[in-house]
Amino acid sequence: MATETKTVKVQLVRSPIGTKQSHRDTVRGLGLRKLNSVSELQDTPAVRGMINKIDYLVKIV
Q1: Judging by DSSP bridges, how do beta strands 38-42 and 7-12 pair with one another?
Q2: Count of C-beta atoms within a 10 Å radius of residue 46
Q3: d(CA 38, CA 58)
Q4: Which of 3, 4, 6, 47 is geometrically suited to a Cys-Cys bond with 43, CB 3.0 to 4.6 A?
Q5: The pTM is what?
Q6: How far apart are CA 27 and CA 15, in angstroms?
Q7: Which residues does 15 contact at the CB level (< 8 Å), separation at least 6?
Q8: DSSP string spanning 47-58?
């Protein structure tokens, strides 16, 4: 019985240049570097909160 963990893919669609430092740190915390980079993360409340914080910079793929 393999337990499947739910994941969410996040893509950086806007540049974090000119945003708050905490928002830039959140982008890096999600594992996103360059524009259009995609990161696959576990779907946890902490990750969802980070995505909600920078929802204007990212897109869920």
Answers
A1: antiparallel
A2: 10
A3: 10
A4: 6
A5: 0.89
A6: 10
A7: 35, 57
A8: HHHHHHHTTTTE
